[in-house]
Amino acid sequence: MKNAICTFCGNVCDDIEFDGTVGKNLCPIGEAKFAAKRRMEAPTIEGEKVSYEEAIERAAEILVNAKRPLLYGWASTVNEAIKLGVILAEKLGGIYDQCSSVCHAPSTLAMIEEGIPGGTLGQAKNRADVIVFWGCNPVEAHPRHPSRYSVMARGFLTKGRQYRHIVVVDVRKTATAYLATEFYQIKPGYDFAVFTALRSIVNGHEDAVPDEVGGLSKEKLKELADVLMDGKYGVIFYGLGLTHSRGQDRNVECIVKLVQTLNRQTRYILQPMRGHFNVVGAGAVAAWEAGYEYAIDFSRGYPRFSPSEFTAVEALLRKDCDAALIVASDPAAHFPKKAVERLAEIPVIQIDPHPNVTTLLADIVIPSAIVGIEAEGTVYRMDGIPLRVKKLRETEYWSDYQILRLMLDKVIQMKGE
Amino acid sequence: MTLHIKNGIVVDPKNGIAGEKMDIFIKDGKIVEESEVGKECKTIDVSGKLVVAGGVDLHAHIAGGKINTGRAMRPEEMRFVRRKSNGLRAAVGRTLLTSPAIGYEYAKMGYTTAIEPATPSIYVIHTHEELDSIPIIDKATLPLFGNWHPVFKYAADKDVEKMKSFVAWVLERTKGYGVKLVNPGGVEAWMYGGNVSGLDDTIPGFGVTPREVITTLIAAVEELKLPHSVHLHCNNLGVPGNYETTMETIKLAKKFRNDNRQVLHVTHVQFNAYTGSSWRDMGSGAEEIAKLVNSMNNVTIDMGQPIFGHATTMTADSPFQFELHKLVKAKWCNKDVELETGAGIVPLVYRPKSPVNAVQWATGLELGLLVDADKIAVSTDYPNGGPFTAYPYIVTLLMSRKFREEEMKKAHQYIEKATALPSIDKERSIEEVIQMTRVTPARVLGMENKGHLGVGADGDVVVYDIDPLNYDSSDYQAILKALENPLYTIKGGEIVVKNGDVVGEVWGRTFWVDASEQTTTEIIEADLDEYFNYYTVKRCNYGVEEGWLHNPVRITAG
Ligand code: SF4
């Protein structure tokens, strides 16, 4: 199959040639995704093999009997399954939360404050003469980003690498920094201060900037501001380096304001480097079905949003949830210890194509078809562009959609609605 | 399922019925003759009540990346709870509604069809996913053409054949319904910080003008015989003095002729109907525009009525959105989209005591009162002017001079100087407002089975608690209450609303237009292949298949 779609990172490359076992054009991390891996043989309840129907029936019972189940994960499945997840959370009066709450949630909070001046990856490819990578390292995390969309991409108006000024700003010299025209190393935790200095210079207040900010001399800052202002069309990509260092959403808010200011003089867009291939969908579907992107509680019969209460980690730490459905995710490997301990105390149902750390504490495990290889559906790339991922081979495994469809039907039946 | 709606007083302007006691019969989702229904038919007696076709909204941003980004950006909008989830879905949102809320709220005021009017084609799967998540109503989407590089190229080459081919290709790929243009040329100019200021500016990099883009597309759409004409958001939106550009644009239609419908639909005209040279001396150009539209027989418009209170502006007119962001100092989302189009979102409040907002409010109403009812449709350009849930309010304002007087008292007195509204005594009749909310939008869209109750029409019927032969226009509260709480909304023969409450959920259809018989894509194959070198998705992964949609209906052009 030509032009298959890779379902690993937020790049969602759509030019993969797949012959059933090997994929061409995949980067190393994409290859790992497509490589054969250990699978779970069948659904299990307390380790005992059962049929899909039995596992789903039992799961539905647990969820219906829970006072406030947590439905978490979603970033690595298709929108069609996510939609069922949101409706399920609503019917159950539970909490819907997704992987963003532990990665780019600060970006959402910044957007609530300031909006986001954004654009598609095609804008970077076709128009950008200045590209900035701030606190992100695509060479390792989104390996084909530089060639497909940014550094080397051959665009309509910007024809290739030599027409672009590439800037990397980070706290250490990353692999991406070696692609840069100019690398600026700043002190950890000083992003906010550096943005503020840059905004001052761009606004014509360089006299307010001290001799050194965040490890950059005033000269260096002025040089960087000039590079930014000289761009006819600039794109700033940023990553977890901003959202997970001191300041978090305030960092993002400040870079948004810098981009707003730059747009008064030239054109700039800002784009977060989103991780999982459909983490954007996990927020978007929830937004149109329930009004919010994550941390949504339905216990009152309608959706409420409160990141400090209804994210998975907060709800677990507070022991607010008495059962959990984990879909296409591995919270046991990524959540803080105390939250994982709570997860171990409550009944956990897992839906995932592969065993992971969460499997070890799951009471019911429902193996699913691999999205983009064994199951189709819609996913949103990091810039929100939708792509329909394909089914490349037949499987006996049920898709996330099929599993959740039956689970939702069972729940509706049990609740007598 | 068959349904007999008994003893109502029918207003059906398209079929010349102006308040006659009549029975209506629905079978298999369509209006039928009495002889076609059998004995086991459900009957509802609506003696003395107004019976009309379901409302049609030809322009509301109800689905896709813009409204959804708006939701994510404005959680403050979502705290308004419209219903809890018992039985049906929970529904929330003040002026930005969730998808379930959109379907329920349309049905609750007697609307059964709504058109999403601005989709970037590359995002169309998302738009369809949201349309498919809206219960009850029928829908369609209009892809954006006005700033797309191949469109500029074919307009510059005056190549109508290739333009036709491109339009047909896009409609098929997007499962789109018609051709939308937003600030043609202006969005491309914005990619480098500019805009265009009128019909004859050169679009940077393409040696072509907005005038040429608009007229070439009208020619293509007319030759393709699409059911809907070019649907245009003019240049210079939201700028004092812009009514001149709007008038000039409307006159472009004079070169074209179509006996069935308009050749140009100019949308949310209120935002393009200002006189003056700045916000300090702006006024209404509605009278002039109304005169012009009334004098022509091939142009239609919709109101774009602002509603005092909260709104969220969202358009593909990204340079305008940036200006608005600077003007009102509110948060701002922007999206530059490949080589296709752009978008922007800015929250806004229309304040009755603001002279500018008061003039905008009055201007919309002037258009609604002065333009012939068969040439104007009611709209708020949801959510730009405010929520579509305000349609009963707008219609009541049009019907009741007394209500207008009450509302004008709340507005800044500058409207007395800057608009003609205070001097307009006219009160729209029931036939006229039914025309403006049903017949006209259905005809503008080329939807033959919508907007009327003749045999063969869709079984979308609404019963309001008004006696059309005997009502008092000065008792505006009674009119408003009746319009906000239909006794019944019937969608495809199913009762979905009773006494103003949603009682049932059905799933509507998505219409799209197949124009492939009117042209061939062969002549643009090479162009498309070349062009897709500059996309970030492969041509074969671009667009949406019919099978992915919930309930698609293909309309063949011609
Ligand atoms: S860059 Fe990302 S999407 Fe592309 S092949 Fe690698 S892992 Fe897959």
Automatic annotation (TrEMBL), chain A:
Please give the GO cellular component terms listed in this UniProt entry: membrane
User: Kind of enzyme, top EC level?
Assistant: oxidoreductase
**Pathway where it operates:** One-carbon metabolism; methanogenesis from CO(2); 5,10-methenyl-5,6,7,8-tetrahydromethanopterin from CO(2): step 1/3
- What reaction does this catalyse? N-formylmethanofuran + 2 oxidized [2Fe-2S]-[ferredoxin] + H2O = methanofuran + 2 reduced [2Fe-2S]-[ferredoxin] + CO2 + H(+)
Q: Which family does it belong to?
A: Belongs to the FwdB family.
Q: Which PANTHER family match?
A: FORMATE DEHYDROGENASE H, RESPIRATORY NITRATE REDUCTASE
Function, in words: Catalyzes the reversible oxidation of CO(2) and methanofuran (MFR) to N-formylmethanofuran (CHO-MFR). This enzyme is oxygen-labile.
Q: What is this protein called?
A: formylmethanofuran dehydrogenase subunit B
Organism field: Archaeoglobus veneficus (strain DSM 11195 / SNP6)
Automatic annotation (TrEMBL), chain B:
The record's GO molecular-function terms, alphabetically, read: hydrolase activity, acting on carbon-nitrogen (but not peptide) bonds
Pfam families the UniProt entry points to:
Amidohydro_3
What are the boundaries of the signal sequence? none
Q: Which intervals of the chain form a coiled coil?
A: none
According to the entry, every stretch annotated as the Amidohydrolase domain falls at 42-497
InterPro entries xref list: Amidohydro_3 (IPR013108), Formylmethanofuran_DH_asu (IPR012027), Metal-dep_hydrolase_composite (IPR011059), Metal_Hydrolase (IPR032466), Metallo-dep_Hydrolases_sf (IPR050378)
Annotated protein name in UniProt: Formylmethanofuran dehydrogenase subunit A
Origin organism is: Archaeoglobus veneficus (strain DSM 11195 / SNP6)
